[in-house]
Amino acid sequence: MAPPATQFELAQPPNDAISALAFAPDAPSRLLVSSWDKNIYLYDTLQNSGDGSHGVLLQTYENRAPVMDVCFGADGNEAFSAGMDWQVRRIDLETGEQTTLSKHAAPVRRVVYSREHSLLISASWDSTLHIHNPTNLSLTPLAIPLPGKPHALAASPSKVIVAMTSRLVHIYDISALSNALALQTNEPPQPWQQRESSLKFLTRAVAAMPSDAGYATSSIEGRVAVEWFDASAESQARKYAFKCHRTAQPASTTSDTPVDVVFPVNALAFHPVHGSTFASGGGDATVALWDAEAKRRMKVYQKFADSVAALAFSADGRYLAVGVCPGFETGMEDYNGEGRTKIFVRELGENEALPKGKGK
Question: Is a pLDDT exceeding 80 seen at residue 112?
Answer without folding.
Answer: yes
